[in-house]
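Quick one - first record:
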Amino acid sequence: MSEKRRAVVLVGHGGLPKDCPREIIQQFKQLERERKTSGQPATAQEQDLEKSIREWPRTPENDPYKAGMEQLAQRLEPLLEEAPLVLAYNEFCAPTVEDAVAGLAARGVTHITVVPTMLTPGGSHSEIEIPEILDDLRIRHPALEIRYAWPTDLDLLAGMLADHLKKF
C-alpha cells in the first residue's frame, strides 16, 4: 500500500491591492457582471484582467489581508502534524485554489484537505464557489483525494470567540 501524502490548502477570500489602478478593477468587475448576467463563460479580456489583478505585486502595505493570511499560515502550519500548508485565494489574489492543488499534486501529494477562512454559513464563496471549484478539481485530478473541511463547527467557533473575548 502506498503512503498517504497529505497537505492542507487554506483558502482566503482575497483582496484588491490598494495600488492596483482603478481602471483595471472597474473594467474587470464590469466584464464579470456582464458574464454573470449572460451566463456565458469568461472572455479572454476578463481572464487577462483577472490575471493582472491576481498577480499584482503584493506587500503588507498594499495588501494587508494577504499579509494577515500569511501570518495565520505561519502559525497554523506547525500545528498540522507534518502536513504542508499552502495558501490559496478565492478571488483577486494568487494563487488560485486550482493552482494550489495542481502544485501539491505535482509534489506527489495524494490527500488534500481544503479549509476556508470564511467560517460562518451563508456565504456564496464557501457554500457555492469553492465546492464547485473542488468538484472540477476532483475530475481533473482523479488520483487525488480532495476533502473540504466545511462547514465549520459553530460550537467550536463560538468557543474560540468566547475564549478570545475573555482577553478584553
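second record:
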Amino acid sequence: MRGLIAIGHITKSVGLRGELKVVPLTADPERFHDLTSLWLGRDESSARECRLAACRVTPKGAFLRIVSIDNKEAAEEVRGWYVFVPEEQALKLPRGTHFIHEIVGLAVETETGERIGTVTDVQNYPAQDIWIVGTGSKEIMIPAVKEIVRQVDLKEKRIIIRAIEGLLDAN
C-alpha cells in the first residue's frame, strides 16, 4: 500500500493529442494546477506515476495532458481510471470532515449498537454528502449531517448514527 488519495476520475479523452477530461473528487479543483506529477490507475495498487504536461480547469472539469499520453488511443486506455496523489499532498480538511476513502468501508451502527451495514459509496450533493450503506439485501442512504451522524471512529472503523424515523427504510 503506497498511501495514495484519489483526487479525480478520468471520464473521457478530448481531442487527438490525448488530453484527459477528469471529474474532480476534491473540494478544490484548482489544486490540479499545482501538480507536476500524479499517479494514474484503476485503483491505488495499480497506479503508476506520470508527469503532468499541462492542465486547465473549467466548470466542466479538469483537463489534463500527461507526458506519456500523447494520442487519443493512449487516452482511451486510461478512461475510467483515477488520478491519485500521495497522502502527504492531500489537502488538510476542516475538523470533523473526512476523505471519501476514509468513509467507504466503515461499519455503520445505531446509537443502540444495532449494526446496519457498511458504507459502499459516497455521493456529493449541494446540501450534503449522502453515504450509501449496503445491508446485504438493500441500500440505505444516510445524509452526512451532524444531526444523524453522531460519531466517525476511524480507529474502530465504524460510524455511529441516530436512526430517526424512516431513515433505515430501503431506498
